[in-house]
Specification:
Layout (H helix, E strand, L loop, with lengths): L1 H15 L4 H14 L3 E2 L13 E6 L3 E6 L9 E7 L4 E11 L4 E9 L12 E9 L8 E6 L33 E4 L9 H10 L6 E10 L4 E3 L5 E4 L2 H16 L7 E7 L16 H12 L4 H9 L2 E5 L2 E2 L22 E4 L9 H14 L4 E4 L10 H5 L6 E6 L1 E3 L6 E4 H16 L7
Parallel strand pairs: 1-2, 4-13, 4-14, 14-18, 15-19, 16-17
Antiparallel strand pairs: 2-3, 3-13, 5-6, 6-9, 7-8, 7-10, 11-12, 12-20, 16-18, 19-20
Helix pairs in contact: 1-9, 2-4, 4-9, 5-6, 7-9
Length: 439
Amino acid sequence: MQEVNIIARDLMEFLDKSPVNFYAARTVASRLDLAGYTRLDPAQAWDIKPGGKYYVVKNDSAVFAVNVADAAPSAGFRIIAAHSDSPTFRIKPHPEMVSDGGVVKLNVEVYGGPIMYTWFDRPLSIAGRVVLRSEDPLRPRVELVKFDRPLLTIPHLAIHFNRQVNEGNRLSAQKDLLPVIAIVKEQAEAKGMLIRLVAEALGCKVDDILDFDLSLYDTTPACLVGMNDEFVTSGRLDDLSMVHAALTALTESDGDCGQTRVMAIFDNEETGSGTKQGAASPVLANMLRRIVESLGGSLEDFDRSIANSFMVSADNAHAFHPNYGEKYDPTNHPVPGGGPVIKINARCKYMTDADSSGVFRAICERAGVPCQTFVNHSDVPGGSTLGNILTSQMDLRGVDMGNALWAMHSVRETASALDQAYTVKAFKEFFTAFSFKIK
């Protein structure tokens, strides 16, 4: 149990340092630096060495790391993929809106698919990326900014004005979900308030700020709950818990398994992955091809390496909810603490098939880890994830899996602390087991 507690607390530290996608990528990169990985510049020539450890950051929000094998360029890759983004609210340009009494609210839009009710009456703040003027207009300066103190709240309408609120209340993202940030005496004080706040935090001039990618986050830290600290509750468990597990396994896996280990942390999964840093782009395929070529391999070697590869698409699953048993498949509903979950879908929303499921089950068995299966209730359509999207770029064998969560896409989700330890152990086995036949 001590190991479980150590992993859970490390996960909570990781979550608290990663309030939005840009900070998640920075936290991952910082841990890779500490583990001896070298950052590569995609615009420069690469000199990849067998046994080397390298990583690339794409658009400040996606990270791709490799531990190169002492093997032929065609030996293949073992890939764990996850994503850095989570549902939130993104701040629009010129966001300040003043209402009666000088109350200033910010104009925001929904990112992804949050459970919007859970964002009411919370201590919220702001984090993200700021783009600053530089001498080269094609290469502006980029800074990250995070306000650690609560700056905003989204106040709910009192029940006295809506007696039917507990019977269901449709929300308007444009009207109901605007966060309050301040009270001003004069309306002119509100104009440019956010930009001034950001400039002060960065120590720059207001005129130096060209644009920003800023989002809201819940300032409440991650914590353990339950009689025996069984559960981790936090924002962004989907999908940062899988990012944490992949990163931990990569940096703590020793030896040569005969194939190059890969961790691929994409962005924008929650909005369909259709960006240059998303899984629908060729960013990972390009990186793997360049690695093969830098090792002296040909295009034929790259194609062979993909044929020899296997990917774990790590994105969380739905835990059986004790209050809503009717929502779940009667025979395939994972429970908290039951181990990593293999995700299966007859409509091929996931990349899992019997072959890839068998591979992951064998990995879990070798690691001494239990595993479970999730299949949607036949009357309830499910969502898709990274796996199938990536196969549009590379014809990989692979499995979709994740840890079981409650309240997925809530501002605070809940997972089993034991499951995180199980998944880290399974991922380490995947990265170290010398079990693949190399053709």
